[in-house]
Amino acid sequence: MRKFLTLISLLFMLSAAVHAQSAISFGTDGRAQYSLLIQYKKAGITGVCMMKKDSSNIVGSIVNEFGVKAFDFRYDTEKDHIKLINVISFLNKWYIKKTIKADWRYLFSYPNKHSKSRAIYFSKDGEITLDNIKRGIKYSFKKIEE
Hints:
This protein has about 150 residues and is an alpha+beta fold. The protein contains two helices and eight strands, in the order αβββββαβββ.
């Protein structure tokens, strides 16, 4: 019985190590492009998320399918701080920006940060879903291969 419990513990640790990678993957040049679907109750926004990572920052832009920029962002990896820039008018409310910033901070600091109101899921086809359980918002990322 003791060997069985040891084996179960070892398998659990190995599975945790497999998922202990960053949610967003960047190429060797530090760039990443994802198609993005943001769902909120009965509404949704589709577009593209383009990001670039350097030694201490991740900068990016969210552009919808019509070419309209929703917002730009800068995430400081050392300070765990995110700033939204050039936010489109219907999202430019303090309470909306506060939620977006907290969601994206969780995404970029995953798996080091834990939350009772947010979860990240990985599908077999490579899709990453960030679920804000409290607010009912889902962000679905699908890698765009170049």
